[in-house]
Q: What sequence folds into this?
């Protein structure tokens, strides 16, 4: 691809127009983020230097990224990174892209863990860990917590290991590539079990944005006919893996709160509750092996 050098201001306008033509949402901001990434500069520097020219080599690299985004590849895959809980995380194709909604799960887990004695060693099981955002964030924010992160995908566990190292918590995050149901056949006990499972109803997958349905792993999305398949299989296996007073937390779809609480109650858990996201939609279910006050 041979393009003449362009000034930043005009280049952004051309890139934005191209992305709009291909139906990319938030096209201007996408164009800016990718140019910052290409030039290795901040957003402020981008506009301070808006009359500067971009050389041919970096111009080619930029348009390659623009074309990938025009093909509706997720921006996070193109940039290779994202921010979650104000921490940096690498993102790679083949692994579920972190969503801001999952911060609600981390915040809820942190609140519960910080309510326990500070001198007590805490252990967390992160099922379906993906890129490691939940377990790594908790290890980084709760100094007396150790984490076991599980995923059946080798790509996901490799990325989790990388992100644990990137955030300086690799000594307290053990990463295991394993099927969750096989792992739960082995004896182990945790203070908390956290999980962001696949919960999209199969019939809704075709209606997801192209970025999701064409690029992200279906294994991390498809929750079966009603979105509850994983919950049904895993919840009966969890009770014996929690210490007395232990807590289990799931991210859920916004219509699934009552159903997941019912499954937890059937398995012997108590004090089930739902935490909404910032839009007021149900997002996290929390329940205990027994009442937290004993």
A:
């Amino acid at each position: 691809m041979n393009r003449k050098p362009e000034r930043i201001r005009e280049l952004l306008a051309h890139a934005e127009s191209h992305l709009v033509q291909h139906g990319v949402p938030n096209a201007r901001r996408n164009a800016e983020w990718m140019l910052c990434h290409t030039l290795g500069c901040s957003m402020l520097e981008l506009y301070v230097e808006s009359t500067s020219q971009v050389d041919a080599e970096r111009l080619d690299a930029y348009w390659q990224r623009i074309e990938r985004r025009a093909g509706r590849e997720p921006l996070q895959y193109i940039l290779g990174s994202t921010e979650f809980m104000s921490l940096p995380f690498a993102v790679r194709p083949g692994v579920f892209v972190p969503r801001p909604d999952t911060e609600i799960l981390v915040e809820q887990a942190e609140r519960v863990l910080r309510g326990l004695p500070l001198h007590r060693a805490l252990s967390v099981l992160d099922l379906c860990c993906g890129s490691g955002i939940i377990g790594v964030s908790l290890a980084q924010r709760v100094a007396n917590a150790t984490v076991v992160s599980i995923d059946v995908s080798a790509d996901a566990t490799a990325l989790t290991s990388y992100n644990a190292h990137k955030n300086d918590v690799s000594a307290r995050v053990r990463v295991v590539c394993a099927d969750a149901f096989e792992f739960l056949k082995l004896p182990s006990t945790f203070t908390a079990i956290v999980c962001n499972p696949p919960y999209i109803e199969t019939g809704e997958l075709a209606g997801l944005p192209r970025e999701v349905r064409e690029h992200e792993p279906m294994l991390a999305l498809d929750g079966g006919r009603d979105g509850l398949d994983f919950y049904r299989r895993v919840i009966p296996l969890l009770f014996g893996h929690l210490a007395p007073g232990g807590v289990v937390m799931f991210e859920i779809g916004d219509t699934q709160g009552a159903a997941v609480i019912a499954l937890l109650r059937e398995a012997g858990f108590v004090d089930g509750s739902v935490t909404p996201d910032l839009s007021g939609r149900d997002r996290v279910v929390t329940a205990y092996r027994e009442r937290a006050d004993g």
